[in-house]
Write a structure and sequence with these properties.
The chain has two domains: about 5-45 and about 55-170 and about 290-315, Rossmann fold (3-Layer(aba) Sandwich), CATH 3.40.50; about 170-290 and about 325-350, Response regulator (Rossmann fold, 3-Layer(aba) Sandwich). Helices cover about 40% and strands about 20% of the residues. It has helices spanning about 5-25, 80-95, 105-120, 130-140, 170-180, 195-210, 230-240, 255-265, 290-305, 330-335, 335-350, and strands spanning about 40-45, 55-60, 65-70, 95-100, 125, 145-150, 160-165, 185-190, 215-220, 245-250, 270-275, 285-290, 310-315, 320-325. The protein is globular and about 55 Å long.
């Protein structure tokens, strides 16, 4: 087991976390505490509708111990980095004891989860839809442990202590950005594998492109791997040579190969899941963030307040399930009309004048 005592890895991930946390302008108000947080004594302000005045509420997080099981490495600048950052946020903000294991095979999930449950970890996060069956199986033996499965495509909970939670419609965001940025009217989305959350993003990509560029040619394909960056690179090069000038690689560490190809071929890219600007700053215009920092924060707060009343929680674009990273200066470098088209379309989704994908 690898813990937060690993200084070098923690420094890398925490730096990414700080950028992500600052960039998500649509995060919950609880994301910035109104009072200093010290261990389990957390105070937050809640405004009542009747008076408009803040009332202080104290939640006790001292009995919560969280473990997250990750399918990949925490340095992938994407899915696993975001998962790590999310529970680092819980330790920093609430003083919660937290631990993690990276690169967990599905076959080993049950063993790790059982070990954590036996050690008294009462919240175990399965950060990946591939863990769904294993999560339900082990949860049946630990009814007093809450299992959070990062999966929002459908409710796959088979146990009352398995909570499905995650963002939906991120593909819409990738698409509307790519459609606005392209000058060749030819864009591509490369997903890692045919797993629910990536498939949903791939399918929503075409709808998103139609919102900003209905005449655009849209290419979508699976790389067939979440780790093979070389294969992703070769596929991306093929699409770029065919005229694609904006590309997305939603594929965990394999997606880094897509960004390498975009950088070498001097085309634009949209970062996926985490803030990937630093991977290819001359290509990555902006990133779409799956805001698990906010989602897991919300889940843990519900647990502390004893307010979990369902086993299926979806976070739409209107609810901030996904958000934009910092633009890192690209907002000033872009053609003003392109930038405004992106922002106006996102605002339309948030205020309901533009529908999210079904």
């Amino acid at each position: 087991m690898r813990k937060f005592g690993s200084k070098m890895k923690a420094m890398i991930a925490v730096l990414t976390f700080l950028v992500c946390l600052g960039a998500c302008t649509n995060q919950q108000e609880s994301g910035e505490a109104d009072t200093v947080v010290t261990g389990s004594d957390v105070e937050s302000a809640e405004t009542t509708a009747e008076t408009g005045e803040a009332a202080q509420t104290t939640l006790d997080y001292s009995d919560i111990k969280v473990a997250i099981l990750l399918p990949g490495v925490i340095t992938d600048s994407g899915w696993n980095t975001v998962g790590y950052n999310s529970i680092q946020n819980l330790t920093d903000k609430y003083g919660i004891t937290a631990d993690y294991v990276e690169s967990v095979p599905v076959s080993d999930f049950g063993s790790y989860a059982k070990d954590y449950a036996e050690l008294g970890y009462n919240v175990i996060i399965a950060h990946g839809s591939q863990f769904a069956d294993a999560t339900n199986e082990v949860a049946a033996n630990y009814p007093d442990t809450t299992f959070i499965l990062s999966y929002a495509s459908e409710n796959v909970s088979e146990q009352p202590n398995v909570i499905c939670a995650g963002p939906v419609n991120e593909g819409t965001m990738y698409g509307l950005i790519a459609g606005a940025l392209t000058t060749t009217d030819h864009v591509a989305f490369l997903g890692g594998e045919d797993v629910p959350i990536i498939t949903a993003a791939l399918e929503g990509f075409t709808y998103g492109v139609s919102l900003t560029n209905p005449d655009c040619v849209v290419e979508t394909a699976y790389i067939g791997s979440l780790t093979d960056a070389n294969k992703a690179y070769e596929m991306a090069i093929q699409y770029i040579n065919d005229g694609v000038d904006v590309i997305i690689g939603c594929a965990n560490s394999a997606g880094l190969g897509v960004l390498q190809a975009a950088d070498e071929k001097d085309i634009l890219a949209v970062g996926a899941v985490g803030d990937q600007y630093n991977v290819a700053p001359d290509s990555v215009v902006v990133s779409v963030l799956r805001d698990y920092v906010t989602i897991y924060d919300d889940m843990i707060t519900k647990i502390a307040a004893d307010e979990l009343d369902d086993v299926f929680y979806t976070y739409t674009l209107q609810q901030g399930g996904c958000c934009l990273s910092d633009w890192h200066g690209w907002d000033a470098k872009l053609d003003a009309e392109k930038y405004q088209l992106i922002m106006n379309t996102l605002e339309g989704i948030k205020n309901g004048t533009i529908a999210e994908a079904e």
